[in-house]
Structure formats: C-alpha cells, structure tokens
Amino acid sequence: MVHYLDHAATTPLRPQALAAMQAQWGQVGNPSSLHTAGRQARRVVEESREQIAALIGAKPADVIFTSGGTEADNLAVKGLARNSQRRRVLVSAVEHHAVLDPANALAEEGKIVELIPVDALGRVDVSALEQMLDDDVALVAIMWANNEVGTIQPVAEVAGLCAARGVPFHTDAVQALGQIDLDLSDIPSVALSAHKVGGPVGVGALVLDRDLAVRPLVHGGGQERDVRSGTLDTAGIAGFAAALAADKPDLAPLRDALVDGVLRVVPDAILNGDPVDRLANNAHFSFPGCPGDALLMLLDAAGVAVSTGSACTAGIPQPSHVLLAMGADESVARSSLRFSLGWNSAPEDVDALLSALPAAVERARRAGGL
To answer: What positions carry a catalytic annotation?
Structure first.
C-alpha cells in the first residue's frame, strides 16, 4: 500500500468528477457545432463555466478554458507582455517554472525581466515591489500560494498596487485553488488547474478580465473569445466543475499533526515557509545533512510517496530556487522535502511517514555527505 503525500503534484480523481466525465464520454458533439449534438455539448461547457465562476467569485465570461495551469500561465505572461509596448516584466523570485520560463522567453525577445525579492518565509517584499513599479512595467506576476513551501502571498494588496499604477497583474492560483477561499473579483488574471483539486489532467483555465488585451499563443478556430483556439474537452471541463464543487475537507489538523510529528521524530528538521499563513495541505521541511532526493527514494521504498523541493536537469539534482531566494544556503536547499495532503488523505498516511522517516533520515545522512 502506497501512502501518498504528494497531492500538490497531482491528486486522485474525485468520484464526482469521474461520474461527470463518464456521462459525457458516451455522448458525441463538438461544442462549436450548431447541430443538436453540438449544442448539447456547448450547454455542458457553459453550465460548467458558470459553476466554476460562481465557486471562485468570477464572471463566467472571464473564464477561458485551457489544457492546464502551465498553458494558462504561459498565455497570461507571454500574451499580456507581448501585447504591451512597455519593456519591464516583474515576477517573484519564487514563481513556478510555468511563470519563470515564459518570462525568460520574453527576455530573449527583448523584454527586461526582474525578480521581486522575498523574505525568509517566502513572502513577497511588497515595499520593494512598490519601488519597482513605474510606467514601463508591462506585467507583474506573483503566485497566490507557493507550490513548494506553501506560503500564501498578499495577492489582494499587490493587485491594488498594480491597479493604482495601471499595470496588469497575473497570479498563478494553481496550488491555492480548493485550499483557500478565492475571490477573483479584483484580480485581473488568474491561472487554475483541474487535476490539483481532483479533476482530470489536461484541463485548466485562465480567468482573464475582458478589459485586458492578450495576444493568443494558439490560433485556429477562434474559440474562447479568440484567445485560446481549439476544440474544447467537454468531458474534462465537466469533471473540472464537479471536482471543484465537491466538499473540501479541513486538512489543517492533519497537516499540523504531520508537522508536529516530523519535528518530534527528527528534532533538527527545519519547517520552511510561513508557519501560519500557509496552505492547509502543505508541510515543507529541510533535513540538514540529508540529500532530499536520497531521502525521497528511501521513503518511496518504504511505501511513502513525497516530493523533493529540487528540480532535476539532465539527471542532476538542483537546489530549490525557492529556498535559495528565501536565503537558505545551497546545502539546506538540497535537503528539502515537501509533504502535501489531499481530499482522501488519512491519519494512517501521516503515521506511515513518521514511522519510516527517522531510519530514512539516518541512512540518507550516512550516504549523503551534505
């Protein structure tokens, strides 16, 4: 039995989502077609759009369906910046690569990309951002909640600053969706993903204010306000709406038990991120002297699935850019693991981790040499 503690990467499909998708898989009809079958598919898409919008405090017309959070981030970052004559693009130093890499692509096109600093908890320095804002800023992108350490960002405050300066603001809310109550009424551009909330892989949305002009990445049939062409996945969209509407368990007590337990069985472990203003399903630790990738594999062998905070390029583990931006040294940044809970997590999963962790840490330290 695998005790799955990597829900921030992807979480199991919810039964409600599966049922909604199965109901559509037996049907036929392109939602762009005008015949009866097409109109029936279009009705499912539009009802799902309305349901998703209502659940996140957005207007249905602002919801643009995509293939996932990565496409939504790319569409917003590239599309908004390319549509502007302004040169500067400001992104937080702890963004997901779905934002950082599109920003780097813009730099190759001549835009000036600057990183907004964060503090030791991973929170954006709002005063620094305020000083960076000027009339040459094309876009500000700051994620709603960090995918590694779980710190929740002051999104409403940042959105207000950007609005006052007439600067488009985008936030990656992929990790925040389903974990905190979102109100997008004053947030002009937001990326979402279905599979983080128990929906299917391959469906997401960019919630984009209709007053914002964005240059499309994909051209074709002119679907989704002519912003994102392509035949819509009716079944996937229905599954997205059903998953988002499902009851959300309060994961904070189980997360707190996990945090307390890790600190009990490995007293020198370091909890990363904001200890209070963090996602309820996230616990991120550094284990000094313990390579994170080695610890991950040892836990995996014990039947516990977790995630390292590091990226891996060409088979070579890299230190977490998030922890480095927070001021951690490279050895600490290499020694991190993320434990994340989901809708079907149980105390037994935490118990299995706490049972396997001490021996895994000891063995990884002996072998690691960090």
So the answer is: 312
